[in-house]
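Example for tutorial group B:
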C-alpha cells in the first residue's frame, strides 16, 4: 500500500539531500536553487502518481460487488480488526458500517443558495477560500417574520379600504376568507412535503420538482419565478403610487392639473412608467452590488409594516371615543374632489355681503351670483359629511353590501336625496370623484389575492434554518393565522369606522389627497404613508433578490437547456445573468403601469404554484409511497384536493383569460422539458402514478386477447451487435419506427454471447434512430439459446410482442456464417410454434432511413396465401410515415388454372373496399409448364452443397453410419420415396406441429394432386442421369423460380415488395435447401419484406 502524502514528501526530500551530499562541493548556490525546484517538481509528480493509483484502486474495488474480489485482505483485516465485522469486511467499500452512516448523516451540512453565504463572502476575504457556515435561524426569525413581511404589504395599505367600499363588508370578507383558506390549505400541504425529509435550499421549487418530477417541477418553477418577478413590479408600482400621489405630487413629470378623463389617466400611467423604471434600476443595482444591504434593511422594513398596522388599530380604538375630523364635501349625493375648493359651500356670508366660493366658480361661468351655473349644481345643495364617523356610529350597516361601479361613474353617497334630470349630460366631471376602473367581484378577487402570497418565504429559506422540519410548519401556519386575523379584522373595522364614499375613494381625492387608511391611523396619517412606502420598497427588493436565485436553482438543475446560462454568476455565486433577466421581465410589468392590472397576472402564477403543491401532497398521500413519512401529521389528501380545487377556482375567478395564458405557458414548458430537457430521476409522484396506471392497465390487458380491431404490431426487433456492442444494422431500427404508426409496443432485443457476470448489458440500442420503446439484452453461453430466451420471455403480461422482426441472414452460404443461418431458421420455427407474426426484410441496408422521402413509386403486395391480413395491414402502416406517404399500393394475387381470374379481381376489390384500403388490384395467372433444365441443375447444386455441409459437421461415427445408410439405400432403391430416414412420422408429431408446419412430404400419396407432376419430374430427372433424394425439392425449386419470374416482371421497379414467406421444413435435414428456396424466390429484387402471419386475423371489415 502506498504511504501517505507527508511520508512521500519526506522520503523525496531525504533522497535529494543524500544525492546532494554525495556530490558535495560540485553544487554552488545556483545549483542548490535548481535542486530545490527539482524537489518540488518531484513532490508534485508523486502527488499525481498517488492520486492516479488511488483512483485505480477505488475503481477496482467498486467494480465487483462480490466477496473476495479485492487483493488488500491483510490491510482490511487490520482496518476492521476488533470491530466484529469479519463477515462483512470484504464489502465495506459498498456497504459501510452503520456507525459511519449515522455519523455522516448527523454531520450533514446543507449547501444553501440563500443570501447569507453571499453576505459572508462579501464581508470576509477568507470566505472565498473556505466555506463559511452561516448562523442558523429559528422559527420566529427564519420563518414567521419573513412570511409576515411578505404577506402584509402594498394591497393592505393601498387597496384594502377600496375593496371594502366596493365589495361591501360581506363580499370582501368572503374574498378574504376564501383566499386565506386557500393559503392555509396550501401551507398544510407544504408542511407535509417539507417535513418529509431534508429540504435543501431551493424551497418551493425543490419541493414541487422532487414531488412531481422535472417536467411539472420546471413548469411550476418557471411560473413561480414569473409570479415573484411580477410581484416585484407590483411592489414598485405601489411604491411610485405612494410617492407621486401622497408624498410628493409635485414631482410628477407629466402634469395632471387641468386634465380630464383619459388624458389624466395617461399622464398618471406615464409617470408610473418613468419613475418605476428609475426605481427598478436603482433596486437592481442595490441587489447587484450586495445582498447584505437588503438583508440589513429587511428588519427595518418589517418594523415599518408592524408599526403601520399598530397605528391603524390604535386609530380604530380612538374613533370609539374621539373620531377624527375628516369632512367630505357632497353636492347632492355626488362626492366632490377637494383639490378644486377650500370651503364646502356655494356662497359665504361676510358682513352684509354674500360672496361666492371657489366651488361656485368651479361650476359657474363667473363669480357673480347671476352667473350661469351647471344645472345639477343649481338644483342640489352642498353638504358636508363626516368621513370617519367612528366605530360606534353604526355605519357598518350601510357598508355591508357591495357597490360596484362603472368606469368614469361619479362616486355617490347612499341615502342622500338628489335632484337629477335623467336626460341631462354630466358636465364638470373633473370636479367629482370618479371611478377609474369598472369594478366587479372577480376583479376584486384578482386584486386582493397577491396580499396573501408570500407563504413560502420560510420554505425558501430552508437552507438557513436550524431545524427546517420543525420551523417551516409552525412558522408558516402561525404567520398565515396572524395575517388572516389582521385581514379579516381590517375588513370589519374599516366597514365599521369609515363612510362608504371615503372607502370607495381609491386615491383619497375627497379627503384632501390623503391615503384613506392613513385617515384612520393614529397619531398621524404620515405614519401609514411612510410605513407603506418603506414596506413596498422592502418587498420589491426582496422580490428582486429571491427571483434570480430561484431562476438560478432551475438553471443549475439542467432540466431546461436554454436556461443554463442563467446558472452562472459572480465568483461568490451571485446570479448576475438571472438578475438581468429578472429586471427585464419586471420592466415589462412596470410598463403596464397599473397596479390593478398587474395584480391578477401574478395571482395566476402564484395560484398555479400553490395548486401543484396541493397536488403533490395529495398524490404522495394517495399513492402511499414507502418514502412518504412526513413528521407533520395534520394533513389529509382531502384537504390537499380541496386546496387544489380552491386554487383552480380562484384562477378562473380572477381572470379566465389570464388563467388560460398561464396554463398554456406551463404546458409549453412541460412539453419542452419532456422532449428537450435533461432526464432526471428524482423519485417523484408522477412516476408513482405511471407505475400504478401501468399495473392497472396490465391487469386489464390480461383479461383476454385483444379484439381484431385493436390488434397492432407489437414488435420484437432482433438486433445483432458487433464486438463493441454497437448496432450492426441501424436501418432495421428505421424500418421499425416507420412501422410504428400503429403505436404498438416496440422491444429492441439483442443477444450477447458470454457470461452475465462478466458482460453487463450496456448496449445502447435505440439511440441511432430514436425509436421509442424498450431495450432488452440477453446474455447466454451461446447465441441460439439467447435468441430463444428472448423470444419466449420478452415483454410482460398483455404487453408482449406479437410480431418478430429479424433481418435476412447475409452471406449465409459462407461456412463461417452457417451458425447464423441455423439461428435464423430456428427463429422461423419458434415464431411459427409460438403463433407470432414474422417480418424478414432482405437487403436491409437498401431500405430508406427516416430522413429520406419517396416522392413517387409503388409498394407491391404479393398475396399468395392468406396470412390473417398482415400483408394488407403493413403497407397501410408504412404509408402513415412520411418516408412512404407518397407511394401507392398495388396488390397482386396468383390465380391457378382452375380459378376465375376476373371474379377473383372483383372479389378482391370488394374486399379492399370494405377494408377502406385504396390500392390497385391485379390478378396474375400462372400457367403450368415443364420443369426446365436450369431448375434441375439448380436443385442438384443445392443438394450437393447440402451434402457437403452435412458431412463437414458429422463426427467419425456419424460418417460411418451415413456410409452404411447410403449402401443400404443402393441395395434396395426406392426412387419414389423422398422421405428422410430421420423424418418423423405423422404419428410422432404433435398436433401443433401438424397444424403449424407448412411443408409436408406427401409425394408418396397416390391421391395427391401433384403426384402426377412428381412422377413426371422423376422421369425427367432420370433422362438427365440425376437421382434426387427428395423429388419435392425439384417441384419447390420450380415453383419458386416461376413465381420469382412473375414478381420480377411486375415489381422490379417497386420501392418495396411484400411477399408471403414460406414455412420452414418440419425436419432438420432440409434447412440449407429452405434458404436456397428463399434465395431463388427473392432473386433480382431490391427491397423485399417477407411476411409470415401469426395464425390470427389482424384486420376486419366490421366497424
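The residue assignment follows.
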Amino acid at each position: 500500500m502506498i504511504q501517505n502524502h507527508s511520508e512521500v514528501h519526506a522520503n523525496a526530500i531525504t533522497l535529494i539531500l543524500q544525492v546532494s551530499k554525495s556530490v558535495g562541493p560540485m553544487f554552488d548556490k545556483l545549483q542548490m536553487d535548481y535542486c530545490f525546484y527539482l524537489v518540488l517538481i518531484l513532490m508534485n509528480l508523486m502527488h499525481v502518481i498517488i492520486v492516479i493509483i488511488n483512483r485505480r484502486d477505488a475503481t477496482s474495488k467498486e467494480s465487483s460487488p462480490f466477496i473476495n474480489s479485492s487483493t488488500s485482505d491483510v490491510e482490511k483485516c487490520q482496518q476492521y480488526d476488533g470491530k466484529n465485522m469479519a463477515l462483512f469486511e470484504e464489502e465495506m467499500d459498498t456497504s459501510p458500517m452503520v456507525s459511519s452512516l449515522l455519523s455522516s448523516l448527523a454531520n450533514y451540512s446543507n449547501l444553501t443558495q440563500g443570501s447569507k453565504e453571499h453576505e459572508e463572502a462579501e464581508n470576509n476575504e477568507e470566505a472565498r477560500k473556505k466555506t463559511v457556515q452561516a448562523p442558523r435561524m429559528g422559527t420566529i426569525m427564519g420563518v414567521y417574520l419573513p412570511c409576515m413581511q411578505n404577506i402584509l404589504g402594498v394591497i393592505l395599505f393601498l387597496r384594502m379600504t377600496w375593496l371594502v367600499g366596493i365589495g361591501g363588508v360581506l363580499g370582501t370578507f368572503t374574498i378574504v376568507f376564501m383566499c386565506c383558506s386557500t393559503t392555509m390549505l396550501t401551507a398544510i400541504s407544504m408542511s407535509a412535503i417539507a417535513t418529509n425529509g431534508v429540504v435543501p435550499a431551493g424551497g418551493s421549487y425543490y419541493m414541487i420538482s422532487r414531488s412531481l418530477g422535472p417536467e411539472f417541477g420546471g413548469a411550476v418553477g418557471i411560473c413561480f419565478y414569473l409570479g415573484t418577478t411580477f410581484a416585484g413590479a407590483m411592489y414598485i408600482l405601489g411604491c411610485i403610487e405612494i410617492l407621486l400621489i401622497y408624498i410628493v405630487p409635485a414631482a410628477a413629470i407629466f402634469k395632471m392639473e387641468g386634465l380630464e378623463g383619459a388624458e389624466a389617466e395617461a399622464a398618471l400611467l406615464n409617470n408610473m412608467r418613468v419613475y418605476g423604471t428609475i426605481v427598478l434600476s436603482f433596486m437592481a443595482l442595490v441587489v447587484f452590488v450586495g445582498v447584505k444591504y437588503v438583508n440589513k434593511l429587511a428588519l427595518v422594513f418589517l418594523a415599518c409594516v408592524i408599526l403601520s398596522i399598530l397605528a391603524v388599530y390604535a386609530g380604530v380604538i380612538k374613533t370609539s371615543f374621539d373620531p377624527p375630523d375628516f369632512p367630505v364635501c357632497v353636492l347632492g349625493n355626488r362626492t366632490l374632489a377637494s383639490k378644486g375648493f377650500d370651503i364646502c359651500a356655494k356662497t359665504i356670508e361676510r358682513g352684509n355681503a354674500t360672496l361666492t366660493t371657489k366651488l361656485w366658480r368651479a361650476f359657474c361661468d363667473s363669480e357673480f351670483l347671476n352667473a350661469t351655473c351647471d344645472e345639477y349644481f343649481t338644483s342640489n345643495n352642498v353638504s358636508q359629511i363626516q368621513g370617519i364617523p367612528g366605530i360606534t356610529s353604526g355605519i357598518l350597516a350601510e357598508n355591508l353590501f357591495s357597490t360596484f361601479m362603472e368606469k368614469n361613474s361619479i362616486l355617490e353617497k347612499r341615502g342622500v336625496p338628489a335632484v337629477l334630470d335623467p336626460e341631462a349630460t354630466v358636465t364638470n366631471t373633473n370636479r367629482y370623484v370618479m371611478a377609474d376602473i369598472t369594478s366587479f367581484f372577480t376583479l376584486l378577487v384578482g386584486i386582493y389575492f397577491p396580499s396573501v402570497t408570500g407563504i413560502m418565504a420560510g420554505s425558501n429559506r430552508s437552507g438557513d434554518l436550524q431545524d427546517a422540519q420543525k420551523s417551516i410548519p409552525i412558522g408558516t401556519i402561525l404567520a398565515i393565522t396572524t395575517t388572516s386575523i389582521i385581514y379579516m379584522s381590517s375588513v370589519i373595522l374599516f366597514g365599521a369606522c369609515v363612510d362608504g364614499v371615503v372607502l370607495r375613494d381609491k386615491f383619497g381625492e375627497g379627503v384632501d389627497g390623503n391615503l384613506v387608511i392613513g385617515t384612520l391611523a393614529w397619531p398621524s396619517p404620515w405614519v401609514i404613508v411612510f410605513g407603506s412606502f418603506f414596506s413596498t420598497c422592502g418587498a420589491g427588493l426582496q422580490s428582486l433578490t429571491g427571483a434570480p436565485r430561484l431562476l438560478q436553482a432551475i438553471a443549475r438543475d439542467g432540466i431546461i437547456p436554454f436556461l443554463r446560462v442563467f446558472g452562472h454568476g459572480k465568483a461568490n455565486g451571485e446570479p448576475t445573468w438571472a438578475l438581468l433577466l429578472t429586471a427585464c421581465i419586471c420592466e415589462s410589468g412596470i410598463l403596464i403601469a397599473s397596479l390593478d392590472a398587474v395584480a391578477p397576472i401574478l395571482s395566476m402564477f402564484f395560484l398555479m404554484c400553490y395548486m401543484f403543491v396541493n397536488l403533490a401532497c395529495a398524490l404522495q398521500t394517495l399513492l402511499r409511497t414507502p418514502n412518504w413519512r412526513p413528521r407533520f401529521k395534520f394533513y389529509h389528501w382531502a384537504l390537499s384536493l380541496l386546496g387544489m380545487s380552491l386554487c383552480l377556482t380562484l384562477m378562473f375567478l380572477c381572470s379566465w383569460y389570464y388563467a388560460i395564458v398561464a396554463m398554456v405557458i406551463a404546458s409549453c414548458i412541460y412539453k419542452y422539458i419532456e422532449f428537450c430537457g435533461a432526464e432526471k430521476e428524482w423519485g417523484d409522484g408522477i412516476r408513482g402514478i405511471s407505475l400504478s396506471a401501468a399495473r392497472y392497465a396490465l391487469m386489464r390487458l390480461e383479461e383476454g386477447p385483444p379484439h381484431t380491431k385493436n390488434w397492432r404490431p407489437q414488435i420484437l426487433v432482433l438486433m445483432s451487435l458487433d464486438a463493441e456492442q454497437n448496432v450492426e444494422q441501424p436501418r432495421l431500427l428505421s424500418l421499425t419506427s416507420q412501422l410504428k404508426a400503429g403505436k404498438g409496443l416496440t422491444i429492441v432485443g439483442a443477444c450477447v454471447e458470454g457470461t452475465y457476470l462478466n458482460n453487463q448489458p450496456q448496449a445502447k440500442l435505440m439511440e441511432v434512430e430514436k425509436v421509442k420503446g424498450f431495450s432488452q439484452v440477453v446474455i447466454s453461453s451461446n447465441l441460439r439459446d439467447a435468441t430463444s430466451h428472448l423470444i419466449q420471455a420478452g415483454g410482460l403480461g398483455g404487453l408482449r410482442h406479437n410480431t418478430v422482426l429479424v433481418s435476412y441472414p447475409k452471406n449465409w452460404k459462407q461456412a463461417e456464417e452457417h451458425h447464423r443461418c441455423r439461428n435464423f431458421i430456428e427463429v422461423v420455427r419458434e415464431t411459427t410454434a409460438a403463433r407470432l407474426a414474422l417480418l424478414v426484410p432482405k437487403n436491409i441496408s437498401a431500405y430508406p432511413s427516416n430522413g429520406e422521402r419517396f416522392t413517387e413509386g409503388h409498394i407491391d403486395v404479393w398475396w399468395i396465401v392468406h396470412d390473417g391480413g398482415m400483408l394488407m395491414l403493413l403497407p397501410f402502416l408504412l404509408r402513415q410515415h412520411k418516408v412512404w406517404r407518397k407511394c401507392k399500393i398495388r396488390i397482386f394475387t396468383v390465380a391457378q388454372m382452375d380459378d376465375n381470374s376476373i371474379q377473383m379481381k372483383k372479389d378482391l376489390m370488394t374486399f379492399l373496399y370494405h377494408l377502406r384500403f385504396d390500392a390497385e388490384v391485379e390478378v396474375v395467372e400462372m400457367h403450368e409448364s415443364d420443369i426446365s433444365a436450369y431448375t434441375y441443375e439448380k436443385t442438384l447444386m443445392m443438394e450437393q452443397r447440402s451434402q457437403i455441409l452435412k458431412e463437414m459437421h458429422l463426427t467419425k461415427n456419424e460418417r460411418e453410419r451415413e456410409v452404411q445408410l447410403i449402401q443400404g439405400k443402393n441395395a434396395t432403391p426406392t426412387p419414389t420415396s423422398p422421405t428422410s430416414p430421420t423424418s418423423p412420422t405423422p404419428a410422432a408429431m404433435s398436433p401443433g406441429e401438424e397444424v403449424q408446419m407448412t411443408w409436408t412430404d406427401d409425394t408418396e400419396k397416390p391421391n395427391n394432386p401433384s403426384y402426377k407432376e412428381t412422377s413426371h419430374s422423376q422421369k425427367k430427372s432420370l433422362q438427365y442421369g440425376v437421382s434426387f433424394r427428395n423429388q419435392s425439392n425439384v417441384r419447390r425449386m420450380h415453383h419458386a423460380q416461376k413465381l420469382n419470374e412473375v414478381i420480377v416482371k411486375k415489381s422490379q421497379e417497386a420501392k418495396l415488395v411484400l411477399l408471403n414467406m414460406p414455412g420452414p421444413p418440419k425436419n432438420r435435414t432440409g434447412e440449407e435447401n429452405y434458404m436456397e428456396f428463399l434465395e431463388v424466390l427473392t432473386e433480382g429484387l431490391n427491397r423485399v419484406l417477407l411476411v409470415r402471419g401469426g395464425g390470427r386475423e389482424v384486420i376486419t371489415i366490421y366497424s
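The chain is about 55% helix and 5% strand. Compare this with the pattern of hydrophobic and polar residues in the output above.
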